[in-house]
Amino acid sequence: MADDVFKALADPTRRHIIDELVERDGQTLFEICARLASKHGLGLSRQAISQHLAVLESAGLVRSRRQGRYKFHDLNTEPLELIVTRWLKPDKSEKPHENPPDQRLRR
Length: 107
Fold this sequence. Notes:
Order of helices and strands: HHHHEEHH
Structural class: mainly alpha
Number of strands: 2
Shape: elongated
Radius of gyration: 19 Å
Strand order of the largest sheet: 1-2
Distance between the termini: 40 Å
Low-confidence stretches: none
Oligomer: single chain
Mean pLDDT: 88
Number of helices: 6
């Protein structure tokens, strides 16, 4: 799962899409295309943006929902939270180092 997230985030266009969904969640494909063109100067086709959204969806970073004939895209931050907590919040049950990092450097 984490590999999919890193792969999805590796592309700058997908990062721009995520930025736009952070700014305004629940956008249609048309809205995302318009915002990418006007704010970032990306003149990609709707099909290309749709393919980027599919990669983000498969990584779990975007969820889509249908309302009538419209499909809305929402940001899902759970995969990012899992990655961040993996390194920033170590499990409390782990045994701490015998010598804290600053102590090892003073030797």
